[in-house]
From TrEMBL:
It comes from Virgibacillus siamensis. It comes from the Bacteria. The keyword Ubl conjugation does not apply. The keyword Nuclease does not apply. TPR repeats lie at residues 20-53. It holds the Pfam family TPR_8. PROSITE patterns: TPR. This is Tetratricopeptide repeat protein. Keywords: Repeat, TPR repeat. Gene3D superfamilies: Tetratricopeptide repeat domain. InterPro entries: CellSynth/LPSAsmb/PSIAsmb (IPR051012), TPR-like_helical_dom_sf (IPR011990), TPR_rpt (IPR019734).
């Protein structure tokens, strides 16, 4: 944002308050005091008053990044790019930073490059260059396209449907993504999962098995095939794939969460509970699936009060969870 910026990335915020905007000012003050819940409350009110103001959207995204709600932050940044991209080019770096935290390194590199193309001498140019250097080792960029905004919109929409088990809605979007963004690893794994739960089990298993043959160390393939094999009653194959996950503790929180959920979905509740306890809640709480499967695991190992507490908190943060069966059903 090369003109009249209203925030400073991370700790320091120097607001230039639009005239009469009381809610925005209160939100910035709360953020400076690291009262993130209060900051979100005030910024929401500001956005309700002026929904189209990109400054409010950007400041809100910074708060969500600070608490680890990277997907939510990216949704806001995408809106800003759609409406005022030429005036808010810092959004590209902020997206890159969020994707790096999510472990989506191809996405992080792509947005960092976009930022440098638009702002070669910008405030974040050194940070963007360092980020690219960090993720540049062993990354294949063949899948990258110039349709960056379109990709992000697809990804965030699909994420919402997957979290809510809306397979019928997720599947056609993922089919489009495999055509528009071929070669992206997470898209292909999400696609095979959506295929499986949409009734195309054989196709999903074949697709994921082929991917594992191409990359025998793919944790995402082991995750999907462990779940598929368990659901289909093929215990021998299930044990083979789940064993590949037992001694693995990835650095990226999103992948660690997927492994914890896999243990829960295949009734290894004690292992799942242990994995959930090791997650950083600041990040995991942004996932409906975290509360759902953590609660189920707690209940199944004899911690009903913990299960109820998790379920109630999850329903408050993710209203869609209340529409699903609780762990005691």
């Amino acid at each position: 944002m090369h003109q009249n910026k209203t925030y400073q990335h991370q700790e320091n915020v120097y607001p230039l308050i639009p005239e009469g905007d009381f809610y925005f000012q209160k939100g910035v003050e709360a953020f400076q005091k690291r009262n993130f819940e209060g900051a979100i409350k005030w910024l929401r009110k500001a956005i309700e008053m002026v929904p189209a103001d990109p400054l409010y959207q950007c400041q809100m995204s910074i708060i969500y990044t600070e608490i680890g709600a990277y997907h939510t932050a990216n949704q806001l940044l995408t809106k800003v790019l759609e409406s005022s991209g030429s005036d808010y080019t810092d959004c590209y770096y902020l997206l890159a930073n969020n994707y790096a935290h999510l472990g989506l390194l191809n996405d992080a590199k792509k947005y960092a490059n976009s930022y440098l193309e638009k702002e070669p001498d910008g405030e974040f140019h050194e940070a963007a260059e360092q980020l690219i250097e960090m993720v540049d080792i062993d990354i294949d960029d063949d899948w990258l396209t110039d349709e960056e905004d379109e990709f992000l919109i697809y990804q965030e929409t699909v994420f919402y449907h997957l979290e809510n088990d809306d397979w019928d809605k997720a599947l056609p979007l993922l089919e489009e993504m495999t055509t528009l963004f071929p070669g992206h690893p997470l898209v292909s794994h999400d696609y095979s999962q959506a295929l499986f739960y949409s009734g195309y089990q054989d196709e999903a298993v074949t697709m994921e098995t082929d991917k594992l043959e191409q990359d025998p160390n793919s944790l995402y393939s082991h995750i999907n095939l462990a779940i598929f094999s368990y659901e289909l009653g093929n215990i021998t194959k299930y044990e083979s794939h789940i064993q590949a996950l037992k001694n693995v503790y990835p650095l990226h929180e999103q992948l660690r969460l997927r492994i914890a959920i896999t243990f829960a979905q295949t009734e290894m509740y004690q292992e799942a509970y242990s994995r959930f306890r090791g997650l950083a809640k600041s990040t995991a709480k942004n996932y409906l699936s975290y509360y759902k499967y953590y609660s189920i695991s707690a209940y199944r190992i004899g911690e009903p009060s913990k299960a109820l507490s998790l379920w109630e908190e999850g329903c408050k943060r993710h209203p869609g969870l209340s529409k699903q069966d609780g762990p005691w059903v």
